[in-house]
């Protein structure tokens, strides 16, 4: 079954199996996406030869609206600003 999401993902997290930095990056991306109500998707660079060639040394990589944003670590405040929010993480839901 193919599920189509009419809302495109604003955040793309590029990862690969065994990446020790990918788990912490995923936690930040999940939190920011949930707080701001934006879609995100995780892709393995092993599933796409072009992504693998471009990013194999930099994963995890975050893309915002298809544009490279961060690599190795995700700066939560910077990601929020890129998505149009200046609200600090600790103020969410306050």
Considering the chains and any ligands shown, give keywords for the structure.
alpha+beta, 4-stranded mixed sheet, globular
Description:
The chain has 94 residues and is of the alpha+beta class. The chain has one domain: Glutaredoxin (3-Layer(aba) Sandwich). Helices cover 31% and strands 20% of the residues. It has three helices and four strands, in the order E-H-E-H-E-E-H. It has helices at residues 22-36, 49-55, 76-82, and strands at residues 11-15, 40-44, 61-64, 67-71. A four-stranded mixed β-sheet has the order 2-1-3-4, with helices on both faces. Helix 1 (22-36) links the parallel strand 1 and strand 2 (40-44). The model has no long low-confidence stretch (mean pLDDT 88).
* Secondary structure: number of strands: 4
The SSE string, one letter per element, is EHEHEEH
As laid out across the biggest beta sheet, the strand order is 2-1-3-4
Q: Classify the beta-strand content into a percent band.
A: 15-25%
Low-confidence runs:
none
The N- to C-terminal Cα distance equals: 39 Å
**Range of helix content:** 25-40%
Main sheet, how many strands, which sense, barrel?
Answer: 4 strands, mixed
- Structure class: alpha+beta
CATH secondary-structure class: Alpha Beta
The oligomeric state is: single chain
CATH topology: Glutaredoxin
How many domain modules?
1
Q: Which term fits the overall shape? A: globular
Number of alpha- plus pi-helical segments: 3
Identify the CATH architecture. Answer: 3-Layer(aba) Sandwich
Lay out the secondary structure.
Elements: E1 11-15, H1 22-36, E2 40-44, H2 49-55, E3 61-64, E4 67-71, H3 76-82
Parallel strand pairs: 1-2
Antiparallel strand pairs: 1-3, 3-4
């Amino acid at each position: 079954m193919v599920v189509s999401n009419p809302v495109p993902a604003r955040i793309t997290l590029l990862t690969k199996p065994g990446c020790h930095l990918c788990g912490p990056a995923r936690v930040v991306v999940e939190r920011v996406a949930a707080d701001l109500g934006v879609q995100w998707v995780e892709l393995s660079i092993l599933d796409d030869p072009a992504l693998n060639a471009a990013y194999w040394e930099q994963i995890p990589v975050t893309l915002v609206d298809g544009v490279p944003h961060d690599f190795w670590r995700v700066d939560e405040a910077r990601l929020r600003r890129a998505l149009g929010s200046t609200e600090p993480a600790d103020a969410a839901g306050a």
